[in-house]
Amino acid sequence: MAMANFMDRAASAASRVLTNFKMSAFEDRVSTQVIGVSFDGTAVKTFEGRASLDLIIRLLSRFYPTIALRPLDPEAKRYVPTLELLAKSINPQIELAKTRKAITVCVVIGCSPSQTKCPTFFIGSDGWRAKLSSNGPVGSGESMNPFGAGAASCFAAANVFRTVFAEQLEQGDADDHIDLSMLTYDHDTAGSGPSFEGTDIGDTHLVGLGAIGNGAIWALARAVGLKGSLRLVDHEEVDLSNLQRYVLTSQSDVGSPKVDLARAALAEAALEVSAYCAKWDVYLSDRNDWMFERIAVALDNAPDRIAVQGVLPKWIVNAWTQELDLGVSRHGFDDGRACLACLYLPHGKIKDEDEKMAEELKMPEARQEIRHLLQTNRPVDTGFVERVAKAFDIPSEALREFIGLSVRSFHQRAICGGIVMRLTDGAQPVRAVVPMSFQSALAGIMLAADLVKHASGLLNMRTTSTRINLLRPLASHLHDPKAKDTSGRCICADEDFLAAYRRKYTGCAAREIRSNQ
Questions:
Q1: Which pTM does this prediction carry?
Q2: What letter would DSSP give residue 101?
Q3: Which one, of 113, 154, 121, 139, lies nearest residue 48 by Cα?
Q4: End-to-end CA distance of the chain
């Protein structure tokens, strides 16, 4: 058994939410856990059951070094190699406990009772509905809908985490019961919900293929019956640290463009998929077409989100993760509600990237130097790396492997990747928000679900935003109205922008969009 080679990044994520975090204690706690996944033939035989199994393995294998697969009947036993191969592709050193090693927390999928005496979470789904219970089996539905099944796995992974680290979480009690409709985000909704089979998503863009984008692609790849055009836009490659929460990634994906990873995941879908390895502004320039029917936004900063709103898409769905919660928001532009830019307008002074990076490298005096390195993309040299090591009081040898990288990559790997935190036993926590994998995955599933609902005419929400906190029991009310900005600074209050939007999506322009659907 061994920790994953990206575990420093996972520890960074945990350090943001756990009190009294110490790296050594964290590793001791994780290494003693044996997370059980029990399942029976009823889970394996259903599309929803297999989807839940797939995602729970993808989530647990990124964090826990020991997993015990417990098939409960011969049909389930034949499915074990598939799950083992998936877990090993994520962490080749993972221990897949085959002996009757004591399980500390267990997830059960199917209709069979638990065979362990540890804390246990039974999960399943019924179409749009995600289900979890601590008392007994909930079963998996027979639809071809992945949204309830995927959300249930995220709820399970969150409850496992909250159980393992209960002493270091405020209000982190486990859920006793969840029955949540991913169609309406209401509780205990009767019925599995309508089918979306045959839905045409028209000409849709997905911008950003990071952790949230991975969750969205996982769901869209399993949303059987979708048709239309999906354009993927992201300029980055997969880094080793990304494996901490990118649910599609395996060890073999490191160094590959994110758009290629997403396109490969969608290979069996009926969608017409096109991939653009470029920044959003470069893509816009090359496209030379400003008509956007529908954009799904999975970006990680406010300026980029505002830039997407600035091209005046007809409709936007946006997903986010924060330190304590995650969510999805829905936006028109000329409907009297908050547009996407309303949610991300800056208030007060915003630190530039060079200033934030200088602070996080503990070298505020080097801000101008860092600005120059960012602007020229010149690599960091030995002297720069040694000064950072001295600032953190760590051996410079630990950072020498990063000599020659750009300053942005150096910061990403040394600070955000958790190496400095490890060497200081958590005394130097990562300041940037690094969500847990189950948070990012659920945000992505919600993004994809709302995209499909909008395209199929099933989206009937009066509220702009829906918000979920996975670090405590699921709240009874999840909707968050989000008021329109009233300062007059937002582009949705500008008559010129409003007029441009109306010209784009009325008359001939509107007919052109409809003809492509």
A1: 0.90
A2: P
A3: 139
A4: 51
